[in-house]
């Protein structure tokens, strides 16, 4: 146990955990996409620059969906070039070949597709069956990799529970994961879109995936804090060998104060735990908190992250 | 995996965890004691009755400290008799022999003393050294047990970090724990009073304690969610064999919105995780959420518990 710097936890490692975790920062995309008031493109670019300055190395920048679907991200063509020179990975979402064309034309080197583990959400989100959605992504993944050597992430939503279907069988998730890897995805992000997972379920899914031959180093986890479970679930995933964790600076995402309470795991709460465990992330927690406080001021409401509140003495 | 009832998680057990956890509910005492506006005694009594109705079996009721110290709990003489007939355990805090006399005169069968693992907090909270505080408690514990056969809990504050001293060496905590058990305490509650613990530290302390011969079934854990770590720390404690967990209905305690952000672990967030893991607590989550919503309405601000917010569709 060391004497920590101010604003940092004591460091006491635990056995059976990785030495390093890669934080996949989703605040600028997943965090902002449901904000009703459009955030000016220059504010978004500055947010991404500050996230990079805080030591984050994978910062999801935007989405090349049709502007009609997600008006908040309709500025992708302006935003991406404004941050493309940063020395970090800047993955972007691409829903289809048209989106891929737009992203590649701007020099994107990492793209992500977003599949669903359940028929109901595939229908609601993509107006397709699960298999039809996979068929739509196959040429996107193939072209991204073969023509441009891009890195491809496959998001998988509703890996634990689905608001229409209830519990999602792990076999169903394994099947879609296999399909995404078989079409060429380099990594997967297992999403608990409605925040209902608990640690036993997380362990069961990861055990089933690795048992089906999915390499654990292709797996990331993406937990929502709807019921306050995101960090416990993340800790469980780390114990199962996962080393890529999605999180959102300041807990941006959905609206934690509104009906459906769908906030992302806050990057600061994650980094606090990892720092305490002696797990390297490369993130400067003080600079990250300052970035989230700055963004919260822009959005006009406090961050829901407890670490941000504690370290910034943020009242509300 | 089962199909859950509405408002409950799927149940997927994990290996290496206990079958049952006893929740030590502290909302009525620890949760309310820092509220500036005095809550009427009848509201407190109704709160405790509703907590019992939700299935909680250990409900800390009040504190027999001098009324000048904690004005919010100055009604202990009125409150305790109003709830004493409930079929649950109702531990009360007693700081000294005078407090013990008052509690025993009302028929209390479970009392708790509150020690500190650090000299600085002992001085700040009790105006004594650690050893002087222990000497003050020794006759309280002895009389409670020998004269009345009461069950005695020993709270231990600042078991991980201390705002004046920084990291607290585990050896120091072990020493005070041993002293409390040697004087006759039946159980201990290990407090992370400022919320700085992380899972490695929790595991290291529990390993040190059991290694020093402290039976794990005498140990409870008491985490604060200042940095969002309370539930991960609790999960870690369960993996080390702990089966008594302190929590506060709705996350009452301190003021999570103010500078020092010292909210307790919310009972609802805990019960959600335990229910998901198939760990029995006897708590009816729906009734508990309704109780916290009712109390939040009385206090005039929303519960900070994410589970309460999600299940009550509580806006703020």
UniProtKB/TrEMBL annotation, chains A, B:
Domain of life of the organism encoding this protein: Bacteria
Keyword set includes tRNA-binding: no
GO annotation (BP), single: ketone body biosynthetic process
Name used for this protein in its record: Hydroxymethylglutaryl-CoA lyase YngG
All copies of domain Pyruvate carboxyltransferase, residue ranges: 21-289
Enzyme type, top EC level: lyase
Family: Belongs to the HMG-CoA lyase family.
Alphabetized CDD domains for the sequence: DRE_TIM_HMGL
Organism the protein comes from: Streptomyces ambofaciens (strain ATCC 23877 / 3486 / DSM 40053 / JCM 4204 / NBRC 12836 / NRRL B-2516)
Keywords tagged on the record: Lyase, Metal-binding
């Amino acid at each position: 146990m060391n004497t920590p710097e101010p604003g940092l936890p004591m460091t006491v490692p635990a056995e059976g955990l990785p030495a390093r975790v890669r934080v996949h920062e989703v605040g600028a995309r997943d965090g902002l996409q449901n904000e009703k008031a459009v955030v000016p493109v220059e504010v978004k670019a500055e947010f991404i620059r500050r996230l990079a300055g805080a030591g984050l190395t994978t910062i999801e920048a935007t989405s090349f969906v049709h502007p009609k679907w997600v008006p908040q991200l309709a500025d992708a063509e302006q935003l991406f070039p404004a941050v493309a020179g940063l020395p970090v990975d800047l993955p972007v979402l691409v829903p289809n070949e048209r989106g891929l064309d737009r992203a590649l034309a701007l020099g994107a080197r990492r793209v992500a597709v977003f599949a669903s583990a359940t028929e109901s959400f595939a229908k609601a989100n993509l107006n397709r069956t699960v298999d039809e959605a996979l068929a739509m992504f196959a040429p996107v993944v193939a072209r991204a990799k073969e023509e441009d050597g891009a890195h491809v992430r496959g998001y998988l939503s509703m890996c634990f529970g689905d608001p229409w279907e209830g519990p999602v069988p792990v076999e169903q998730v394994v099947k879609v994961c296999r399909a995404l890897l078989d079409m060429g995805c380099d990594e997967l992000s297992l999403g608990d879109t409605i925040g209902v997972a608990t640690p036993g379920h997380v362990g069961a899914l990861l055990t089933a995936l690795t048992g089906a031959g999915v390499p654990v180093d292709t797996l990331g986890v993406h937990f929502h804090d709807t019921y306050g479970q995101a960090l416990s679930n993340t800790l469980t995933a780390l114990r199962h060998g996962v080393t890529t964790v999605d999180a959102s600076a300041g807990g941006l995402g959905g609206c934690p104060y509104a009906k459906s309470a769908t906030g992302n795991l806050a990057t600061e709460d994650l980094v606090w735990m990892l720092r305490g465990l002696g797990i390297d992330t490369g993130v400067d927690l003080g600079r990250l908190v300052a970035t989230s406080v700055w963004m919260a001021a822009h959005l006009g409401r406090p961050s829901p992250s407890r670490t941000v509140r504690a370290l910034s003495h943020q009242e509300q």
